[in-house]
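User: My instructor asked us to take a sequence, write out its structure as tokens, and then describe one feature of it. I'm not sure where to start. Here is the sequence I was given:
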Amino acid sequence: MISCFLYLIFMANVVLAQESDVPRKEVFFGVGPAAYKGDLSDSFSKWSMVVHAGIKLNRFKKVHGNFALTIGSVTGQNINYSFDDGSQTTPEPNRFFTTSVVGFNYELHYNILNKERIKVYASQGIGLMRFQPQDEFNASLIDQLSTRALNETYGNITLTLPTQVGMLYVLPNDFSVGIQLGYHNTLTDYLDNISDWGTKAGHDNMFSFRFQVYIPVAL
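Assistant: Let's start with the prediction itself. The structure tokens for your sequence are:
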């Protein structure tokens, strides 16, 4: 009996030692286009490049978390955009914008398909994003009070709720490559600098598509 108990302890130590040698985390890098939908665009039609980086935790589990950084820009234009508030003064909202975006999220991933080589997943995240809308001359729109209603001001940091789906293929060397689609609810109506003079209800949102590489690391 004692010998069996000692054998079980020995085997458990061997398994734990083996598992400790296996990277439990991955770093990832991605790049792809992103588009905005708001008062200056009724659809996700104008695309800009966005890069992504982050770390994936508990990589072998069906449910795991990510920390992700996003850096890029989105843009929109409607040269015929106008707004009439019924006053004698004609509103003059901007008809073009481009905004840089820097976001940091925590994302909870669930592997819908969790095969040895193929992973199909969905994720829901929460984070913060800083944005800086500019006009066609690269001047800050936040400082151009004439483009908004009287006394209308806003901050340039917003809460984001990214919802994403993706697929990964695990290579023989344990690296992974894949694609991901993301819908980013920004919880702000000011990506395009237009809100009170807007004709579209709801927040401005983003849609992204990216190619990505995951690299196992021992941390």
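For the description part of your assignment, you could build on this observation: The radius of gyration is 23 Å. Try explaining in your own words what that tells you about the chain.
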